[in-house]
């Protein structure tokens, strides 16, 4: 990634963060506010990592040999960056346990008169109403904002 690409991506992420901040003002539920807060925190983390990458690019131009290795590592880490909007659930099917966000393990086995039941948490889709003002932002897709070459590719697409 060249420094021009990094600068363009930085501007896109910062602008996207401002949009999410503005949309957060219209939130009418705690759940909606938490989703926006997670998106804002994730975008800020991506912006901070991009600042490190741009600093390493500057050091590389100043012939800092160690900066090349650091830049390679930071670029690889940034390439795997993701923003989790909801809780991370880890399920262990062998022990019949799960945990949320690296918390304590919770047993899902229940025994009563009718026998043994297993009740793992389920992944559910959220409606646009539940997502609130994040719905149109999420619908656009992450790759659209994280690929600095999109503008160039869009210019060459037939209209």
What does this structure look like?
The protein is mostly helical. It contains seven helices and five strands. The chain has helices spanning 3-24, 30-61, 65-79, 128-131, 135-140, 142-146, 150-156, and strands at 89-92, 97-100, 106-107, 109-112, 115-118. The strands form two sheets. A three-stranded antiparallel β-sheet has the order 1-2-3, with no helix packed on it. It has a two-stranded antiparallel ribbon with strand order 4-5.
Please count the helical segments. Answer: 7
The H-and-E topology, N to C, reads as HHHEEEEEHHHH
Shape: flat
- The main sheet orders its strands as 1-2-3
Structural class by helix and strand composition: mainly alpha
Major beta sheet summary: 3 strands, antiparallel
**Would you report the number of β strands?**
5
Distance between the termini: 28 Å
- Helix share of residues? 55-70%
Give a short synopsis of this structure.
The chain is mainly alpha-helical. The protein has helices at 3-24, 30-61, 65-79, 128-131, 135-140, 142-146, 150-156, and strands at residues 89-92, 97-100, 106-107, 109-112, 115-118. The longest helix is centred in the N-terminal third of the chain and has 32 residues, at 30-61.
């Amino acid at each position: 990634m060249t420094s021009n690409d990094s600068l363009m991506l930085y501007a896109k992420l910062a602008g996207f963060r401002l949009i999410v901040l503005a949309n957060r003002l219209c939130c009418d539920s705690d759940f909606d506010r938490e989703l926006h807060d997670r998106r804002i925190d994730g975008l800020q983390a991506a912006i901070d990592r991009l600042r490190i990458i741009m600093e390493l690019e500057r050091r590389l131009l100043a012939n800092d040999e160690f900066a090349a290795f650091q830049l390679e590592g930071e670029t690889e880490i940034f390439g795997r960056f993701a923003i989790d909007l909801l809780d991370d659930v880890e399920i262990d099917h062998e022990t019949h346990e799960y945990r949320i966000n690296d918390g304590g393990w919770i047993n899902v086995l229940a025994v009563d008169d009718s026998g043994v039941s297993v009740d793992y948490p389920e992944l559910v889709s959220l409606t646009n109403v539940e997502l609130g003002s994040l719905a149109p932002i999420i619908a656009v897709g992450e790759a659209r904002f994280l690929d600095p070459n999109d503008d160039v590719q869009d210019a060459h697409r037939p209209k």
